[in-house]
Amino acid sequence: xSLLTTEAIDHDALIRQVLRSSDGAVVFFAGVVRNxxxxxxxEAIEYQAYESMARKEMARVIDSVAREHDEVRIAxxxxxxxxxxxxxxxxxxxxxxxxxxxxxxxxxxIDRIKETVPIWKREIGPDGSSWSGWxxxxxxxxxxxxx
Amino acid sequence: MRIRLLLFAGVRDLVGDAVREIxxxxxxxxxxxWNELVAAHSALAAHQIPMVAxxxxxxxxxxxxxxxxxxxxxxxxxGG
Lengths: 147, 80
What we know:
Chain A is an alpha+beta fold and 147 residues long. Chain A is 30% helix and 35% strand.
Protein backbone atom coordinates (compact mmCIF):
# COMPACT_ATOMS: atom_id res chain seq x y z
CA UNK A 1 0.00 0.00 0.00
CA SER A 2 1.42 3.35 -1.04
CA LEU A 3 0.27 6.01 1.42
CA LEU A 4 1.46 8.97 -0.63
CA THR A 5 1.11 9.64 -4.34
CA THR A 6 1.52 12.45 -6.84
CA GLU A 7 -1.01 10.83 -9.21
CA ALA A 8 -4.80 11.22 -9.25
CA ILE A 9 -6.35 8.94 -6.63
CA ASP A 10 -8.40 6.01 -7.92
CA HIS A 11 -11.38 5.82 -5.56
CA ASP A 12 -12.59 2.43 -6.74
CA ALA A 13 -9.16 0.87 -6.48
CA LEU A 14 -8.91 1.96 -2.85
CA ILE A 15 -12.27 0.37 -2.08
CA ARG A 16 -11.30 -2.86 -3.86
CA GLN A 17 -8.17 -2.96 -1.71
CA VAL A 18 -10.14 -3.35 1.54
CA LEU A 19 -13.44 -4.99 0.62
CA ARG A 20 -13.88 -8.68 1.44
CA SER A 21 -16.84 -10.93 0.77
CA SER A 22 -17.61 -10.98 4.51
CA ASP A 23 -18.09 -7.20 4.53
CA GLY A 24 -21.51 -5.63 4.58
CA ALA A 25 -20.31 -2.03 4.43
CA VAL A 26 -17.56 0.11 3.07
CA VAL A 27 -17.31 3.75 4.11
CA PHE A 28 -15.36 5.92 1.70
CA PHE A 29 -14.15 9.42 2.53
CA ALA A 30 -12.58 11.83 0.08
CA GLY A 31 -11.12 15.19 1.01
CA VAL A 32 -11.38 17.47 -2.02
CA VAL A 33 -9.97 20.86 -2.95
CA ARG A 34 -12.65 23.53 -2.52
CA ASN A 35 -12.75 26.90 -4.25
CA UNK A 36 -12.74 29.06 -1.13
CA UNK A 37 -11.08 29.41 2.26
CA UNK A 38 -12.03 31.94 4.94
CA UNK A 39 -13.86 34.09 2.41
CA UNK A 40 -11.06 34.04 -0.16
CA UNK A 41 -11.09 32.38 -3.54
CA UNK A 42 -8.91 29.29 -3.94
CA GLU A 43 -7.84 28.13 -7.40
CA ALA A 44 -5.46 25.34 -6.46
CA ILE A 45 -3.67 23.79 -3.49
CA GLU A 46 -0.10 22.60 -3.29
CA TYR A 47 0.50 19.76 -0.84
CA GLN A 48 4.00 19.21 0.54
CA ALA A 49 5.09 16.45 2.92
CA TYR A 50 7.96 15.25 5.05
CA GLU A 51 7.42 12.05 3.15
CA SER A 52 9.31 9.47 5.20
CA MET A 53 7.84 10.72 8.47
CA ALA A 54 4.38 11.21 6.96
CA ARG A 55 4.32 7.55 5.91
CA LYS A 56 5.28 6.52 9.45
CA GLU A 57 2.64 8.73 11.05
CA MET A 58 -0.05 7.59 8.62
CA ALA A 59 0.79 3.95 9.33
CA ARG A 60 0.65 4.74 13.04
CA VAL A 61 -2.83 6.28 12.67
CA ILE A 62 -4.07 3.29 10.68
CA ASP A 63 -2.65 0.87 13.27
CA SER A 64 -4.21 2.76 16.17
CA VAL A 65 -7.67 2.80 14.57
CA ALA A 66 -7.38 -0.82 13.44
CA ARG A 67 -6.59 -1.83 17.02
CA GLU A 68 -9.76 -0.08 18.21
CA HIS A 69 -11.88 -1.64 15.44
CA ASP A 70 -10.45 -5.05 14.74
CA GLU A 71 -13.08 -6.00 12.15
CA VAL A 72 -12.40 -2.94 9.99
CA ARG A 73 -9.92 -2.97 7.12
CA ILE A 74 -8.46 0.44 6.34
CA ALA A 75 -6.75 1.92 3.28
CA UNK A 76 -5.55 5.52 2.96
CA UNK A 77 -3.79 7.51 0.28
CA UNK A 78 -2.84 11.20 0.36
CA UNK A 79 -1.96 13.06 -2.81
CA UNK A 80 0.96 15.53 -2.97
CA UNK A 81 1.85 18.27 -5.44
CA UNK A 82 -0.42 20.76 -7.17
CA UNK A 83 -4.14 19.97 -7.10
CA UNK A 84 -7.01 21.79 -8.76
CA UNK A 85 -10.44 22.54 -7.34
CA UNK A 86 -12.52 19.37 -7.18
CA UNK A 87 -9.59 16.98 -7.09
CA UNK A 88 -9.19 14.48 -4.28
CA UNK A 89 -6.38 15.24 -1.83
CA UNK A 90 -6.99 12.31 0.51
CA UNK A 91 -9.06 9.16 0.23
CA UNK A 92 -9.91 6.70 2.99
CA UNK A 93 -11.74 3.40 2.64
CA UNK A 94 -12.95 1.45 5.68
CA UNK A 95 -14.63 -1.92 5.10
CA UNK A 96 -16.39 -3.88 7.82
CA UNK A 97 -19.03 -6.56 8.28
CA UNK A 98 -21.27 -3.82 9.76
CA UNK A 99 -21.62 -0.12 8.94
CA UNK A 100 -21.35 1.44 12.40
CA UNK A 101 -17.75 0.42 12.91
CA UNK A 102 -16.79 1.44 9.39
CA UNK A 103 -18.24 4.95 9.85
CA UNK A 104 -16.55 5.35 13.21
CA UNK A 105 -13.17 4.10 12.00
CA UNK A 106 -13.24 6.34 8.92
CA UNK A 107 -13.93 9.43 11.02
CA UNK A 108 -11.10 8.58 13.41
CA UNK A 109 -8.62 8.05 10.58
CA ILE A 110 -9.21 11.46 8.96
CA ASP A 111 -9.30 13.29 12.32
CA ARG A 112 -6.03 11.75 13.52
CA ILE A 113 -4.27 12.26 10.19
CA LYS A 114 -5.09 15.96 10.34
CA GLU A 115 -3.55 16.18 13.81
CA THR A 116 -0.17 14.53 13.43
CA VAL A 117 0.87 13.74 9.87
CA PRO A 118 3.52 16.18 8.57
CA ILE A 119 1.77 17.34 5.41
CA TRP A 120 1.19 20.99 4.54
CA LYS A 121 -1.08 22.78 2.11
CA ARG A 122 -0.47 26.07 0.35
CA GLU A 123 -3.67 27.67 -0.86
CA ILE A 124 -3.27 29.48 -4.15
CA GLY A 125 -5.77 32.17 -5.17
CA PRO A 126 -5.98 35.18 -7.46
CA ASP A 127 -4.30 37.35 -4.79
CA GLY A 128 -1.36 35.08 -4.04
CA SER A 129 -0.85 32.10 -1.79
CA SER A 130 -0.18 31.15 1.81
CA TRP A 131 0.64 28.08 3.85
CA SER A 132 -2.33 27.09 5.96
CA GLY A 133 -1.91 27.89 9.66
CA TRP A 134 1.37 29.72 9.17
CA UNK A 135 0.54 33.22 7.96
CA UNK A 136 -1.84 33.96 10.81
CA UNK A 137 0.40 32.41 13.44
CA UNK A 138 2.70 34.73 15.33
CA UNK A 139 4.25 35.28 18.73
CA UNK A 140 1.76 38.00 19.55
CA UNK A 141 -1.38 36.41 18.12
CA UNK A 142 -2.93 33.02 18.58
CA UNK A 143 -2.43 30.09 16.30
CA UNK A 144 -5.19 29.53 13.80
CA UNK A 145 -5.85 26.02 12.63
CA UNK A 146 -8.54 25.35 10.09
CA UNK A 147 -9.45 21.88 8.92
CA MET B 1 29.03 17.95 15.17
CA ARG B 2 27.13 17.77 11.94
CA ILE B 3 23.36 17.34 11.64
CA ARG B 4 20.90 17.37 8.78
CA LEU B 5 18.22 20.07 8.97
CA LEU B 6 14.94 19.71 7.05
CA LEU B 7 12.65 22.67 6.45
CA PHE B 8 9.08 22.66 5.21
CA ALA B 9 6.22 24.89 4.10
CA GLY B 10 6.39 28.44 5.46
CA VAL B 11 9.74 27.89 7.17
CA ARG B 12 11.26 26.57 3.94
CA ASP B 13 10.00 29.57 1.99
CA LEU B 14 11.45 32.07 4.46
CA VAL B 15 14.83 30.35 4.79
CA GLY B 16 15.14 29.41 1.12
CA ASP B 17 16.38 25.84 1.55
CA ALA B 18 14.68 22.47 1.93
CA VAL B 19 17.70 20.64 3.34
CA ARG B 20 20.86 21.82 5.04
CA GLU B 21 23.84 20.05 6.50
CA ILE B 22 24.84 22.21 9.45
CA UNK B 23 27.47 22.18 12.17
CA UNK B 24 26.15 22.66 15.69
CA UNK B 25 27.80 22.46 19.13
CA UNK B 26 27.81 19.02 20.81
CA UNK B 27 24.57 18.48 22.73
CA UNK B 28 22.83 21.30 20.89
CA UNK B 29 19.04 21.27 21.10
CA UNK B 30 16.39 21.90 18.42
CA UNK B 31 15.46 25.07 20.33
CA UNK B 32 19.01 26.36 19.99
CA UNK B 33 19.11 25.49 16.29
CA TRP B 34 15.82 27.36 15.84
CA ASN B 35 17.26 30.43 17.59
CA GLU B 36 20.25 30.37 15.24
CA LEU B 37 17.92 30.12 12.27
CA VAL B 38 15.86 33.07 13.51
CA ALA B 39 19.05 35.09 14.04
CA ALA B 40 19.97 34.51 10.39
CA HIS B 41 16.45 34.96 8.98
CA SER B 42 14.68 37.79 10.77
CA ALA B 43 11.33 37.06 9.09
CA LEU B 44 11.13 33.93 11.27
CA ALA B 45 11.14 36.06 14.41
CA ALA B 46 7.41 36.72 13.94
CA HIS B 47 6.78 33.01 14.46
CA GLN B 48 6.90 30.75 17.48
CA ILE B 49 9.17 27.73 17.35
CA PRO B 50 7.29 25.07 15.38
CA MET B 51 6.92 21.47 16.42
CA VAL B 52 10.14 19.51 16.20
CA ALA B 53 10.97 16.05 14.86
CA UNK B 54 14.25 14.24 15.39
CA UNK B 55 14.89 11.24 13.15
CA UNK B 56 11.26 11.21 11.98
CA UNK B 57 9.76 11.22 15.48
CA UNK B 58 8.15 14.17 17.25
CA UNK B 59 10.52 15.39 19.96
CA UNK B 60 10.79 18.14 22.55
CA UNK B 61 12.66 21.33 21.65
CA UNK B 62 15.10 20.66 24.52
CA UNK B 63 16.11 17.20 23.25
CA UNK B 64 19.89 16.76 23.02
CA UNK B 65 20.87 16.26 19.41
CA UNK B 66 23.49 13.75 18.36
CA UNK B 67 25.90 13.56 15.45
CA UNK B 68 24.12 12.83 12.15
CA UNK B 69 20.66 13.37 13.57
CA UNK B 70 17.96 14.49 11.17
CA UNK B 71 16.19 17.51 12.63
CA UNK B 72 12.97 18.82 11.12
CA UNK B 73 10.91 21.85 12.04
CA UNK B 74 7.23 21.02 11.59
CA UNK B 75 5.04 24.11 11.15
CA UNK B 76 1.31 23.62 11.82
CA UNK B 77 0.29 20.61 9.74
CA UNK B 78 -2.62 20.87 7.32
CA GLY B 79 -2.95 17.54 5.56
CA GLY B 80 -6.25 15.97 4.63
